[in-house]
Amino acid sequence: MRDPERTRTGDVMVAAGAVSGLLAVAAGAFGAHLLEARGTDTALRVFETAARYQMYHALALLFAGRFLIRRPSRTLLASCWMFLLGTVLFSGSLYGLALSRERWLGAVTPAGGLLFLLGWLCLGLGALRAGPAAPSAEGRRR
Asked: Which end of the chain has less neighbouring CB within 10 Å, N or C?
């Protein structure tokens, strides 16, 4: 990856992680109020699981995106995409299941979980394989 391209991609992933974290907090609050009012404990637990895993992986995406800026690699980029797509499939399917009770959505959830696992694997491999850290803006000014 070229330097500006690497920085831009990493910045986009960090921004995606921030937006995902914001949405996880909003979804958690929304779900708690909406589903508690309906009196459905199972749906509330499913919804809370979706919000919790979305937040975990929003934080992972923030970290992986920042790491991608400092130590670019295809493996770290793959990790970012897997966290992002895993969130859409895993948390998205659970949100849909809790709100709509469409049972077929439960079949999508494991694919998102697999992407989460692969994302963590790629993050670990990327950390081991990454080249030297790119100079920080502060280091370049000296």
From this structure: C
Element housing 37 (H / E): helix 3-38
Instruction: Give the Cα separation of 129 and 96 in Å (integer).
Output: 38
| Full residue range of the structural domain in which residue 105 is found | 3-128
Q: Which residues contact 130 (CB under 8 A, 6 or more apart)?
A: 67, 71, 72, 73, 75, 76
What whole-number distance in Å separates Cα of residue 139 and Cα of residue 135?
6
Residue 139 lies in a domain: no
Degrees, nearest 5: CA angle 49-54-58: 155
29-65 tens-digit pLDDT: 988 788 877 767 888 899 999 999 999 999 999 999 9
Residue 47 forms part of a structural domain: yes
